[in-house]
Amino acid sequence: MRHSIFLTLAATVALAGCEPAGDAEVERALKDLNVVDETNLNDIFLTVGDPNEAVSYFSKANANDPGRIDLQRGLAKSLVRAKRNADAVVAWQQVVGHEEAENVDRVDLADAQIRANKWDDAAATLNTIPPTYETFKRYSLEAVIADSKQQWEKADSFYETAVGLTTRPANTYNNWGYSKLTRGEYREAERLLLDSIRYDPTSFSAKNNLVQARGARRQYTLPVVPMTQVERAELLHNLALTAIKQNDVTTGKSLLAEAVETHPRFFPEASRALDALENNVNN
């Protein structure tokens, strides 16, 4: 692709007539080509590149060409991917302060602030965004912030709006279900967590939360959802611990034994817990 572009450029210069193209014109054309290549490289670092290498790349790019908001965004996103949350907040604040900043940048700043455990700052950032700016990410963040403040009605409203704005609501349903679980609304939690698994059958977090919601109601059987043998063993173990905490010790021992039988090679924790229970009874 690059060779054909350069050939086209050369032909354009050759056909320009007796008066050759000025150096500035050629330089401008070459600069445009470099921007195309650079954009592709930026995308690679933002998606498949190592996060720390991306941070290094965008840090150098910003130093060499300061003031470009696309490079500032690249650095901020890379810092988030590298889990350098405090640095990411600073980087996103620089982006938001840019004259070309948009509402999506403010949402990303709020996201970074939540990751850095700056919940009040995140709420303040979202409050600067007009209510007419409605996106899945904005309402997802609004929901978890309302959750953190135990503002349940607001949280439910934000979660409901968020899932209506995406075709991939699995994680939001999981968060919403976990919220219901922490409130003691176990049946509603089960419904939402089943929705999460329906959209993402691979989510172990949703499966575990579902088991916890069932266990809280003393429903000590695994739900009928897709799971691997390793997941089955882990879920049986966690369900057993829930039963034991609720003084249903006999049921807990039975579940631990089933966990050991399900996958003894990859799940020794259940065996150790069962041994500890047996020793406690014998003593």
TrEMBL record:
Whether Metal-binding counts among this entry's keywords is no
Q: State the UniProt keywords alphabetically.
A: TPR repeat
Residue stretches spanning the membrane:
none
Q: Which domain of life is it from?
A: Bacteria
Give me the TPR repeat coordinates as residue ranges: 170-203
Q: Which InterPro entries match?
A: TPR-like_helical_dom_sf (IPR011990), TPR_rpt (IPR019734)
Protein name in UniProt: Flp pilus assembly protein TadD
Which species expresses this protein natively?
Yoonia sediminilitoris
Lineage of this protein's species?
Bacteria, Pseudomonadati, Pseudomonadota, Alphaproteobacteria, Rhodobacterales
